Amino acid sequence: MGEEDEEGEDDDMGDLAQLMGLPGGAGGPAANAPLTAADEASIARLLDLGFTRDLVLPVYLACGRDEELTANMLFDQAGNMAGDD
Prior knowledge:
This protein is mainly α.
């Protein structure tokens, strides 16, 4: 359980958007969608949960800007990846 494990987890989490069928990272058309102040507040709360903006943004947009659904998707996928070890 060293540095390699942590890097592997980061790589796995970085693949979440791809697993969900989204463009990698924050790229693609969804990245061009204007964000409201409410969106930014939701994203900030999701970031506080430990996820990166590059991961949160495409999932948030794919979830129809639903903060709770986004958090559930992120945690569900993180749990699935943790179970793969």
